[in-house]
Amino acid sequence: MQVCARGTIMALGLLASGLLSPAGAADKGLTDKGEVLVREGCSRCHAVGVSGNSPNPDAPPFRTLSSKYPVSDLAESLAEGIVSGHPEMPIFVFMPNDVEAIIAYLESIQTTPAPPPGETPNG
User: Fold this and answer.
1) pLDDT digits (tens, 9 = 90+) for 58-73
2) Which long-range contacts (CB under 8 A, 24 or more apart) does 88-91 make?
């Protein structure tokens, strides 16, 4: 019993010192980082939050991406360079930890559930 209490006290001390963080806090930090990255790089054309219209009417709001495909499918394109069919969109290439953060953020704002892998939204 005393060993368990000591372990709990040690874990609480680590939490307080910031050396150990609950998974939710780590996820929040990752999501926050992803939000910063998309706001800085994408908000000129896309609506990047949970509401609002895209400044460029041809650019889809990020919160609706999962209506077309699973957001996680963007990971490879983000890492290798997103190339779009329109010339106004710059080519972005992100580091793996940034890709993880962007995907976490995009998944957190989706308003439409993603279709199952391999299935399109309409069938």
Assistant:
1) 899 999 999 999 999 9
2) 88/45, 88/56, 89/45, 89/59
- Coil, strand, or helix at residue 75? helix
Q: Where are the alpha helices (DSSP H) in 18-115?
A: 23-42, 75-80, 96-109
Q: Which residue has the tokens 């439409």?
A: 112
pTM score, whole prediction: 0.69
C-alpha dihedral, 66 to 98 to 39 to 109, nearest 10°: 30
- The rounded distance, in Å, linking the Cα atoms of 119 and 70 is 9
Residue with tokens 């309409």: 122
Domains by residue range for the chain, with CATH: 22-109 (1.10.760)
- Say which residue the tokens 């997103």 belong to: 82
